[in-house]
Design goal:
The structure holds 2 protein chains of 2 kinds. By secondary structure, chain A is an alpha/beta fold. Chain A folds into 2 domains: 214 residues, P-loop containing nucleotide triphosphate hydrolases (Rossmann fold, 3-Layer(aba) Sandwich); 69 residues, Alpha-Beta Plaits (2-Layer Sandwich), CATH 3.30.70.100. Chain A is built from 11 helices and 14 strands. Chain A has a 6-stranded mixed β-sheet with strand order 6-7-8-3-9-10, sandwiched between helices. A 4-stranded antiparallel β-sheet of chain A has the order 2-1-4-5, covered by helices on one side. In chain A, helix 3 packs parallel to helix 5. Chain A is globular, with a radius of gyration of 23 Å. In chain B, helix 4 runs parallel beside helix 5 and helix 6 crosses helix 9. Chain B starts with 5 loop residues before the first strand and ends in an 8-residue tail after the last helix. Chain B has 9 helices and 14 strands. In chain B, the strands form 3 sheets. Chain B has a 6-stranded mixed β-sheet, with helices on both faces. In chain B, a hairpin with a 3-residue loop joins strand 12 and strand 13. Chain B is α/β, with parallel strands linked by helices. Helices cover 33% and strands 26% of the residues of chain B. Classes of the chains: A alpha/beta, B alpha/beta. Chains A and B meet through helix 5, helix 6, strand 11, helix 9 and strand 12 of A and helix 4, helix 5, helix 6, helix 8 and strand 14 of B.
Chain lengths: 314, 312
Amino acid sequence: MSGAAIRLRGLAKRFGRRPALAGVDLDLDGRQIVGVVGPDGAGKTTLLRALAGLLEVEAAEAVVLGHDLAGDVSDLKSRVGYVPQAFGLHRDLTVGESLRFIARLHRLAPEAFAARAEVLLARTGLDAFVDRPAAALSGGMKQKLAVVCALLPEPALLVLDEPTAGVDVLARGEIWSMLERAREQALVVLSTSYVDEAAACDRLVYLDAGRVVAAGTPAELRARVPFALYRAWGDDPRAIARAARGLEYAQGARAAGRCARVTVSTARAPDERRVLADLAALPAGGVRFVERTPLDMESTLLALAQELGARGSA
Amino acid sequence: MSDPIIRTQGLTRRFGAFTAVDALDIAVAPGTIHAFLGANGSGKSTTIRMLIGLLRPTAGSILVDGIDVIRHPRRVRDRIGYMGQRVSLYQGLSLRENVEFYAGLYGLAGGELEWRWGVLRERFALGEAEAERPEDLPGGLRQRAGLALATLHRPRLLFLDEPTAGVDLHSRALFWELIQEEAAAGVTVFVTTHFLEEADYCDWVSFIDGGRLVADAPPEALRRRFSAGYRIAVALPAAARAAARAVLAAGGHAVEESAEGLRVDSPELAPRLLETLAQLVARHPEARVGIEQPAMTDVFRNVLAPAAGGRA
């Protein structure tokens, strides 16, 4: 295949007067899992739908798998697997019927379909429920079925809009294993509001107000964030956090388990030794041990949001 | 623990042949943040609706702040604040008009209302939003406004049903700071969420799966039971290792050598271990201590794993 799988320049989409995408520039390629993250209303769903060829968009350039999004996208649709946020399958069809329906839609050869369906069903544990109507599956099973249906035609691009939202933690793990396997054959683009999933992506695209404002590997995003994370462990983490919020260079502090997580601005904070001393001397909560710890994905995403002016929290 | 402010016994709700909530025994200590966790469809909302008297149980008993909720569902409502999954702000009314409407319901007016709302407006950073309609506000602000309204009448208990669903990370972080402030002021908070890591912001966790409690303990106790425990890595030069090892061993901790230095595995972070680490860093300023705390998501994966066979 020649050219990038996804190349967008100035991709824009309005719903009425409201711009949902305000000029997205993005290049994505290779077999990887790309996470689209960002605040509510940033345009994540709109971007994903555009990538799947489901929206009419304006752009200086918008090419997905060699297809121009401004032109005829019917061929593109057959090469993209798309899992919408809301359950998008036929509720009355059974698990088996859902798969046969997709197979017919994509004109899959019967033998190839049977072999592939069997593997996917066995892998997800859905094989025990082939005769059950989709509507009667648990939330996690429904989501697994949606992913299986999207994977069945072996798409070159898999687009998933919050595929694990509200799903139990075991099903989430299984869905991620499926995506990691799909990555061997396809470019996987998904949105997520789970921090641990964002951390597990190969690449992140941070969207804000309809634009890509940061993109890179999780490590690259971490490196560009001007914040440092400290933890103060002690008897009453909530009291420690409250006291830490009083430090003038603290961006935020919150008790989490046995520690208070304190984020500080590296531009405003004194050197590490001094911050550690300040935290150790906090007058509340019985601080017993303080440490500087590598910025995790939660602090990274929070820092990006804050850097961007934290719309909605003014 | 002091007498529970919320207590259910054998709480059960069936819808036809389907049992949504199955013999739930919950006890919530006053002034604590009690997380009620589970996936979508696990029975969280059904439970919270029964606790606040909106839905009659099929069986069991509920006491909230000394009131028998099944017998007197209305009486409990003055004592509690409730915020639902869809924040209950009226569209078409400005935030200020919403405040006046809710104040009217609780008999709050005049100087008392102005004072109370002034405090909340400041604390929840709602000043700029006052003249706006809820539908025009970003999700995070709308959710803070919802919490402010739920606390307008100074309830002793707050019931929050998925307050952080569909809200971005930054707003979620701020929101948890506010909830922890409420608890610090003595309010009991009963909160449902499907973000498992949020368990760590709470004092107690009840975890529900398929309508049944599968875990019911403080987050640290769950961590102790369902994870490999804390892993503490101490990186330091080879020359300093023997001395550092002696400090840790004197504290009674099992120490192992690693490539970078030393390693201590501990099921919990007892104050004594923390103090030993502080001593160690004081004596060896070149040492880098990293504490690896087992993630709550992994803890709950382990809670569920044995029960997972054949679940649909």
